[in-house]
Design a protein that fits this description.
Distance between the termini: 31 Å
CATH class of the largest domain: Alpha Beta
Number of domains: 2
Structural class: alpha/beta
Strand content: 25-35%
Helix content: 25-40%
CATH topology of the largest domain: Conserved hypothetical protein from pyrococcus furiosus pfu- 392566-001, ParB domain
Largest sheet: 6 strands, mixed
Length: 204
């Protein structure tokens, strides 16, 4: 089984809501989607119900706070223990990235209405936390004047420290220093940087 996440906002096979939440997926080439409907619950849709549990597991890699998945009839297809969520002040967060995506910012702005709507994954780092994802959401939090966001504490491989070091070298010590780029610039600058880093790792 091949599960691939759809990373655009214009694919007509999916609802606009699911795409804005990065909930569009292809399973063996067939479209499936996940739509978050509350702080811990999502609806899954697609051709074969037997694939829903696999889809839920894949989606939780990106959104571990979503722990209950139901089909359109309301029948639960997968359920997980809820992770512990903590409140983290923005100034206590060290980004592992240095850019935010203008296109993603427009998408997340459509469904984030309050600080508690932002849930990211973090790794503890002394008395601070390193953000492992959600940097565009963090940019939005700064833009809207939120003081804190919610976070699930996770672990990561040592690669994250290379990104933290680079972020700090560029003057990014909190979400307040993230730089907003157009989607085209983001693809070129951020993805290009990641490609170079991982190419260096492969050469070692």
């Amino acid at each position: 089984m091949e599960i691939k996440r759809v990373d655009n906002y214009t694919d007509g096979r999916f609802s606009a809501v699911a795409l804005r939440q990065h909930g569009g997926f292809l399973i063996d080439g067939e479209p499936y989607e996940v739509e978050i409907i509350s702080s811990d619950t999502a609806v899954v849709r697609g051709m074969c119900a037997d694939n829903f549990s696999h889809l839920a597991e894949e989606f939780r890699f990106y959104a571990p706070h979503i722990c209950r998945f139901a089909d359109e009839k309301g029948d639960v297809v997968a359920e997980y223990p809820p992770p512990e969520l903590i409140s983290v002040a923005l100034d206590e967060i060290q980004p592992s990235q240095f850019y935010a995506d203008e296109e993603k910012l427009a998408a997340v702005s459509a469904f984030i209405h309050a600080p508690e709507d932002i849930v990211i994954q973090v790794k503890r780092w002394g008395d601070r936390c390193v953000s492992l994802d959600g940097h565009t959401r963090l940019y939005l939090a700064v833009q809207r004047g939120y003081g804190s966001v919610r976070a699930a504490v996770s672990e990561s491989d040592d690669w994250v420290w290379r990104f933290v070091h680079e972020a700090r070298a560029r003057g990014v010590y909190s979400p307040r220093e993230l730089k907003l780029l157009s989607h085209e610039e983001y693809e070129r600058e951020w993805n290009g940087f990641c490609d170079r880093i991982f190419a260096e790792e492969d050469e070692q």
